[in-house]
């Protein structure tokens, strides 16, 4: 299981974004996470993936503290261009993660014709699929998918999520972050909502017990003039 245990986090001296938040994503699960803009979903994602370190609490990967170096938790976000070296061709970008899984390449609709091109020579949606293919190597046990299909057309979105659901069927645990209720309703095995400082189960989803002490910043929702930044 990929776990956040009672984690708190603040950027510098700013008010905490997360305070005492706990959640778990099991192997084979797709946990959908929604919540208003600015509530800390991506921050939680980056903590789970090891890009940020919590002030207190712990992130555990299958019961252990994350090891240094290559991580079995991969984080993919909406801005695919920020995840790749623009000077590398697509083939080299994919090679970095080891041999390409041909079945997955086909499922994600990644064309071999793109391999000789640079990131700016394929579309944003195509690059997003390349980044997902790179992230889903054989050693990846968890995927933190932060708005990964937001920039895809509806048909490609379905194809990508079918590929991810198949991967989950083979044991991959996925945290799917999205503003798209319809998408999460369709793909998530259970759902959580981060709002007003609490991680809550979305009604109807078979949510496991979770606990959190809240997030002071999220406590400012809904946005009212008094709560807007100066
Ligand atoms: N590097 C940073 N330095 C300072 N503050 C940051 C940084 N990254 C994010 N924040 C702030 O932390 C809060 C949570 O941001 P985060 O990106 O986690 O929200 P989110 O729920 O993912 O939002 P959205 O749905 O709009 O993507 C926001 O108020 C944001 O401005």
Describe the structure.
This protein has 230 residues and is of the alpha/beta class. It is built from six helices and nine strands; from the N terminus they run E-E-E-H-E-E-H-H-H-E-H-E-H-E-E. The strands form two sheets. It has a six-stranded mixed sheet with strand order 5-6-7-3-8-9, with helices on both faces. Adenosine-5'-triphosphate is lined by residues 11, 14, 17, 35, 37-43, 217.
CATH topology-level fold name: Rossmann fold
Total beta-strand segments: 9
Indicate the mean pLDDT: 86
Give helix and strand order, one letter per element, not per position. EEEHEEHHHEHEHEE
How would you sum up this structure in a few lines?
This protein is of the alpha/beta class and 230 residues long. The chain has helices at residues 41-48, 90-95, 102-108, 124-135, 154-169, 181-187, and strands spanning 2-9, 18-25, 30-34, 56-61, 73-77, 142-146, 173-177, 190-195, 198-201.
Helix and strand topology:
Layout (H helix, E strand, L loop, with lengths): L1 E8 L8 E8 L4 E5 L6 H8 L7 E6 L11 E5 L12 H6 L6 H7 L15 H12 L6 E5 L7 H16 L3 E5 L3 H7 L2 E6 L2 E4 L29
Parallel strand pairs: 3-7, 3-8, 5-6, 6-7
Antiparallel strand pairs: 1-2, 1-4, 8-9
Question: Which descriptors would you attach to this protein?
Answer:
230 residues, alpha/beta, Rossmann fold, three-stranded antiparallel beta sheet, 9 strands, 24% helix, binds adenosine-5'-triphosphate
